[in-house]
Amino acid sequence: MLRLTALMTTGALARRSLIASALPAIASCATGTGLGWRRIGSFQPSDPDRPPSRGFLTGSLVQSVAWHPDGQRIAVGAVSLRPFHIFNLATGEVIRIPRSQTTTNAAAFTRDGRYVAVTLHRRSPSGPIDYGFTVCDAETGAELHVIREGLRPGLTGGAQAFSLSPDGHFLAVLFSRDRITVYDTVTWSVVSAFDTPGFGGVNLAFSPDGTVMALVGQRYRVLDPRERFPLVLWDWRAGREIRSIGGLGQFVLSRPAWRPGTTTIAVGTGSLLANMPDGITPAPRGTPIARVHLVEATTGERLQSWVWPDDEASAKDVSWTADGSMLAVAAGAVDGAVRLLAPGRDAVAGGIGVRGDIVHQVAFSDDGRRLAIGQGSAVAVHERLGA
């Protein structure tokens, strides 16, 4: 029987000295939270070999934001032909992963900050597309390892999502929706590899104790819309499904985010056409629809749901602070809203208004003091005041 250890939140943040950024600071308030936020910098990935592109159809949207453990550097990937970038907030330095990186969907730093894993999807000189992922030096961007082991024969598609285990020993990689491979981060050898038959994964995450893998996606050939997009828990060492938690929404859009030190998971949902809780009946415009759910992994019980009107945006991404006291939600609204939620409070606790394009990504730094917001084709970084 797989162990799901219930842990208590420590309630304390690891304090780090943060170098004062030389980038322009723009005031931005978070109402109702008791804490203010200020924008300390922004970054838009660019490729000197290609002209700048704009808009959704050109594929320039930021799809991956990953913090370095030092809280100063961010890996940014856009769905485009641009390479991955590592941006240093303190110095303004930008490191580009080699130009051969073409489609960049996911990234993850190792726990010691020495390496960064990024999606590999590039065309070789002979024509075929090379799949897998690559491990690069976080200081220089130099490619050190190209990892293809663990891919099923005939599999096409690069790594779609990464999750680093809490102890930093393992990196889980989701390949082409229905293949998960777990690697040792020292030897980069395969520790576990399994398929998810009948289920197409979109994103995944290790539990805080590292024993369970949470996976979100879609069950194929399932007619009931309430069960078509579940949160599924896996014993990743045995490659065995433990529990499926349905009824969360027409689409589960965000990564599964384990609340630190607990066995509860937050997921963001949405729909192309907002429906009532039965998943079938169309909802009148303005009807409050659940967008973020907090569920208990050990029982499948839904502990709390946050709602807002159906004519507002879906929850495209979620991220916890290190102490689990606050959840940031990429609301995906046209006004660029980032909602801040607090467990135990039904109402939205606050938010950060960032005008411009739709917000697709949110990520707290390890110490919880900085929040990276992927909006359109750029990333803005906000810092919490009074923390």
Automatic annotation (TrEMBL):
Give the source's domain of life in one word: Bacteria
What is the protein named?
WD40 repeat domain-containing protein
Q: Name one Pfam family in it.
A: WD40
The family database entries (PANTHER family) matched by this protein are listed as: DIHYDRO-HEME D1 DEHYDROGENASE, PROTEIN NIRF
